[in-house]
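Trying the structure run again after the queue cleared.
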Amino acid sequence: MNKQLLSTVGLILAVILFISFNIVSNGNLKSSRIDLTADKLYTLSEGSLNIIHELTEPVTLRFYYSEKSGQELPSIKSYAQRVRELLEEYQRASNGMIKLIEVNPAPFSDSEQRAKQYGLQAVPLEGGTDPLIFGLAGSNLLDGTEDISFFQPEKEDVLEYDITKLIYKLSSVERKSVGVISSLPINGKEYDPLKGEAPSSDGPKPWAVMDELRQLFDVSVLPKNIKRIPSSIDVLMVVHPKDFDDSTLYAIDQYVLNGGKLITFVDPYAESDKPKKDPDNPMAAMLASRSSNMPRLFKAWGFERNVTDVVADRKTAIKVDFGARTNNQPIDYVLWQGIPADQLNHDQAITNQLKRIEVATPGRFEKLDGATTTFTPLISSSNEAMRVDKRVVQFRNDPVALLTKYQAGTIAYPYAIRVTGMVKSAFPDGVKGVDGKIHKSSRHIEQSKQAIDVIAVADVDMLSDKFWVKLQDFYGKKIAYNTTNNIDFLINAIDDLSGEKGLISVRSRSGFSRPFDRVLALQRKAEKKYRTKERELKKILKK
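Done. Tokens:
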């Protein structure tokens, strides 16, 4: 009897313990999980957590998801769960500063109308079913709103960055100021109030890089002939300083010596610089210079950009189809390169988590003897790179010949560098004015007040759209898909120079397809052998 009673009591206690454990687990361990993914996709990065913890005003996130329509699309249903779980992570980490509201917008309802007012997209589905709404609307106490119009499964690798960026834009953090000077129409053609001219529909369009910068910074486009860089500019970005006069270079010199931060893009042969064609002189465009440099400033800062050559690299070459010139087959174009992670500086926050940078006909930097500055490469070629006279590219560019005549070197060349240290002015006596006399700024200084911090990149084309972004029409709205980390490098650099660290670690987690390196190496070896044999046979046939 006692044994039976004990067994019954033991069974009842076991049931009670089991139920209690489940209650406690559901209540306290719901958010606990082990993230075994390679890139920790289910764990918020340090940058996201920093931005969340720095919130001083509450942010409301409204997650709109058409449950019924999503049920019919397994991939969307699965991705919606991924988005939902990540948003819950943000809410849990915010200590009450982020309020998450999930809305299931029924067709023709007020919630559907509100979603559209926020800018979210209702995507029609085949079969006459209800449209799918799958996006995020964020708001703050000041009625500021931001949105992710539609969660594209193809952009899952930047999901955390997109959400964190939305929260960052809704926060009360003061945006850093970026000044842009360029000889290229990267800002398109804007309205000129003095001339009363509006941009024409066939005029130059702004580069996508400008839109990305404006999302995160206060961007000012400065004139090429500027005489003084405003001290309110946190970071100055100089793109293709082609034919800049000394007064502009002097302004840059004084800005940097006064503690201003600079990132500059120069190029031995900028393919983005398209010379105007002259029907009366067809050779003029070919002879026109596409080079940019700031040799006087660079020398004062302890380095130089080599002016005679561009760098080719078969190991990282991008396949390009040149049509009839390559028998309508893509070949390794050694002047266009996809730089992998192992050629990026892992000791610098700007580049330590990036995976791929693309460059085109890049130049190289060299440290000068006796330099007082520290010279740190950020992006480099492989150690099998080859120097090519830039005149070969300008006048007789033959992609097949470049490939078959390629001779691997043994040196890695710096494409992008960071230079820090104390320096003297490149214009110690001032600069010659239009009157022919030497003038000095009223605030002229001859030596830097503190260690300068300059980033220089020997390639301009990496900023052009085709080397980092693809724009696709998604039901009437342009959606940008990043294909490389080029834009991440630029914004990381601006963030780091300006002292903003929050978004760097989040942005750097973006991933791209991982190439089969060994297979590609075998393919390149076989193709080189084939191309060499092909040229030999052609020579025989010509005899």
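Confidence is low (pLDDT under 50) at residues 27-32, 191-198, 511-520. Worth checking whether this holds up in the mutant runs.
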